[in-house]
Amino acid sequence: MNDTGPVRFSGSLERPVTREHALREALPGRSGRQLVFGVLLIALLVAAGWFIHFLALRDNIPATRHAWWPWIALAIAVVLSIGLIVAANGQPSRPMLALVCLFACGVSALELVTTAGLLDAGVTLTATGAVGMLLAVVAVLGDPRFAGSTGVLIGAFALSQVLVQAPQAGVATIEGVGMALAASLPAVLTAVAVTGFNRMVGVDLDHSIVQSTVGVGPTQPIAGAGDELASLDLEAEQLLAGVAAGRIPLPLPPAESALAARVGASLRIRLIEGRTDTWLKHAIAESELLAGAAVVDDPEGDAARLAPAARDALLLSLWLLVDDRPRGSQVPIRVIVDNADAETDRLVSIDLVIAGGSRRRIDPTTWETLGNVGSYRTFFEERDFRITILSRVEPDAPERTARSQRKAER
């Protein structure tokens, strides 16, 4: 079977490793570790500042309040958290991250009890500020939603305590509010920043994964098509190797016979589908953002005749339109591609059907990107919003396609 490039084998009978898997496995590399170490260093410096602030306030806290307890609890929580992260080889699971966030809530709750009613004496939160930096590290290491939600929860309780003491604290309330926000905002802001960064990297990686499908011509093999074919080839190779080695008798037992029939049927189906498969179908199938959010109806493979610039613009438009869909919409965007010029075959029609969509929901940048695909018009059809684009084909594409030849023969 021809090698299409995106599949590699580490052994003759091992499972193929797809290009997408290889790219995603490479993400948590050196740059990711540098980001974690950088945030950890900043967290240590800020936590040291909070500790110095605590030492300055310690004399204002009655001995019966056990002022050191929150910081001792924080030290224990940090040691346990480091132990969990090291045990997970730097990639903690969600339950582990949830446990670290629970440790953070426990430390903050202990300090809220310790400092309750002392705002008029100038006593504010300190260990909770260090907790906020611990949550910032959690946001970088794992799911930022855990850290962000915990930071919001801690900030809400801290502000509530400050507002309850406002009548007695007077002007000191302003300082209390500032300290409460300073303690909780780092976790929230870091979570927001990491979420945006992850999304940006995800889109860029998604674009890299599907980019190899954009520049291929009508008769060139699609890079992503090799993944499924390699899997079928592996199963056929294992079956033939078993027969050749005598592990599988002839005639084939029922199980192996069923496997051979399935592989043969899949290869025939793949061969039939391959006649009209184009870069667009494989780009959407390989895209983590577009798979399931868009479906292609291109029975004659006309998308293969689009110029590379129009292909790039079409993919970018689909990414933007998926973001602009109504919230909660589960209906994928339909992409209908057809020939628009029966005489010369120099125009391709692309219909984008968005269920429940409207023109006002679409960002102006999306319209500009659609204009790079070709001239477009918009229509409302009951509950659907349709965008019809007319795009000129690649300049060096043949003037008469197989589709038009069949029409001429008829």
UniProtKB/TrEMBL annotation:
<protein>
    <submittedName>
        <fullName>Uncharacterized protein</fullName>
    </submittedName>
</protein>
<feature type="transmembrane region" description="Helical">
    <location>
        <begin position="176"/>
        <end position="197"/>
    </location>
</feature>
<feature type="transmembrane region" description="Helical">
    <location>
        <begin position="96"/>
        <end position="115"/>
    </location>
</feature>
<feature type="transmembrane region" description="Helical">
    <location>
        <begin position="146"/>
        <end position="164"/>
    </location>
</feature>
<keyword id="KW-0472">Membrane</keyword>
<keyword id="KW-1133">Transmembrane helix</keyword>
<feature type="transmembrane region" description="Helical">
    <location>
        <begin position="68"/>
        <end position="89"/>
    </location>
</feature>
<feature type="transmembrane region" description="Helical">
    <location>
        <begin position="35"/>
        <end position="56"/>
    </location>
</feature>
<feature type="transmembrane region" description="Helical">
    <location>
        <begin position="121"/>
        <end position="141"/>
    </location>
</feature>
<keyword id="KW-0812">Transmembrane</keyword>
